[in-house]
Specification:
Layout: H1 3-6, H2 19-40, H3 57-64, H4 66-98, H5 102-112, H6 114-117, H7 120-133, H8 140-165, H9 168-176, H10 181-210, H11 213-218, H12 226-234, H13 240-267
Length: 268
């Protein structure tokens, strides 16, 4: 048998017909709506789809709106608590997975990663049903608990990937030198896991800050996060104020991604 025929060939996607055209169309489809939202956030008029001139008026209205500030504060509080708790749980799960056999590890990952593949509407209904069964009043507590459970898989993926790339001989060397398990964890494991922890925390924070569906189901009266508030604004029509608020959220997301990039580059 010819060895050359058995070799794996690299597939150059650029050779496929119309690959470049399809790629450009997909990028336009993804990013053109964002560009439209950003541009019309600076519109002077009150109609979001008719350009009447450049103005920063709507950004001032958003900043002066007390309801938006309260909703933003609620979202930040929930996201902060959910991020810390989900990262702590993800670190524990990742370390536990490393000690399991391959079959058991796959079963645990199947359960832990379920929120990544299950429809979010199913998770929202199931979470609401659980709180109703336990007779837990809906409010800030239920939203935070739901976000913690939903964010754990997103924090787990980069942490587990980082742990899998680490040289196990480092831990063995630390143990041979007389370090206790806690000292190994504090002085060796955590510093080496730091890039994965930062990436997992940022991912969990963005997912929690952006979540609407689960929050909508488990939030009680008076618990209004920013996505829910934006949904309420859209029910009366799209205005430049909605575009301005969306632009600010987009800016925050870009700043978080840039911070994650430079943090990882510095650590590298």
């Amino acid at each position: 048998m010819n060895r050359e025929a058995n070799r794996t060939r690299r597939v150059d996607l650029r050779r496929f017909p119309a690959f470049a055209t399809i790629s450009v169309l997909l990028l336009v489809f993804l990013y053109l709506p964002l560009l439209v939202v950003v541009v019309y956030a600076f519109n002077t008029g009150r109609i979001a789809t008719i350009w009447e001139g450049f103005s920063l008026h709507w950004f001032g209205d958003v900043a002066a709106n007390a309801d938006i500030r309260n909703a933003t504060l609620t979202s930040l509080q929930v996201a902060a608590v959910a991020t810390v708790c989900s990262v702590v749980l993800a670190i524990g799960i990742a370390l536990g997975l490393a000690a399991l056999r391959r079959t058991a590890r796959g079963a645990v990952m199947l359960v832990a990663g379920a929120p990544l593949v299950l429809p979010e509407i199913v998770l929202a209904v199931a979470t609401l049903a659980m709180f109703a069964f336990l007779d837990v009043p809906l409010g800030m507590t239920t939203v935070t608990l739901a976000h913690i459970a939903f964010c754990v898989p997103f924090a787990l993926l980069p942490i587990r990937a980082r742990l899998a790339d680490m040289d196990q001989r480092v831990f063995e060397a630390a143990a041979d030198l007389g370090a206790s398990p806690w000292r190994v964890f504090r002085r060796v494991t955590l510093p080496l896991l730091a890039p994965g922890i930062v990436a997992g925390a940022l991912m969990a924070f963005i997912v929690s800050l952006d979540d609407f569906l689960i929050t909508f189901f488990v939030a009680g009266p008076g618990t209004t996060t920013l996505p829910i508030y934006i949904y309420g604004m859209l029910r009366v029509g799209i205005t430049p104020a909605v575009n301005a608020l969306s632009t600010l959220i987009l800016l925050v997301s870009l700043l978080v991604l840039a911070a994650a990039y430079f943090a990882g580059r510095k650590r590298g």
